[in-house]
Amino acid sequence: MDQIEITKRKMREAFEDDAEAFPPYKLLLAYGGYFEPRHRPEDIPIGEKHYCFRNALRLASERPDLRYIEGYGVSQEFEGMPERHAWCADSDGQVFDPTPTWADPDRPLSVSLLWGISLPLDFVRPFVDRKQLHRGTLDRLRDEIDLITNKLGLDRLR
Known about the structure:
Blueprint: H1 3-18, H2 23-31, E1 33-35, H3 52-62, E2 67-74, E3 83-89, E4 95-96, E5 113-118, H4 121-124, H5 137-140, H6 145-152
Antiparallel strand pairs: 1-5, 2-3, 2-5, 3-4
């Protein structure tokens, strides 16, 4: 088994261990998907450091060909728990990450695996905190996941 497959397995196990206590993990297990990180393309403007949710929302709002994705990233060594993150992806699943340090072209990728779910912009706008760090839709609605499943037309998770 290669390192990426091992990392995927560890990430899934970490989500499964805490899914009952943290409903967003349950949502990601049921409906999320894996994304392969890549360096930020040159035509993607650099966002503000530490504000991935705001950066991804801005980019997806400016580029209708991109979807807003919210979820988690993890290092290849899987040191610690997955870290909250937001990025964008095109219809082929190619990642477009405007957040500095996560995908800067002039430095090694800081994450080897992303796992997230596409959320509609009109739904996430009220929940993406523009002032606080590390606050996105999944954080704000952590105990009200049914709002997300209803919006996305998904089956209830309970």
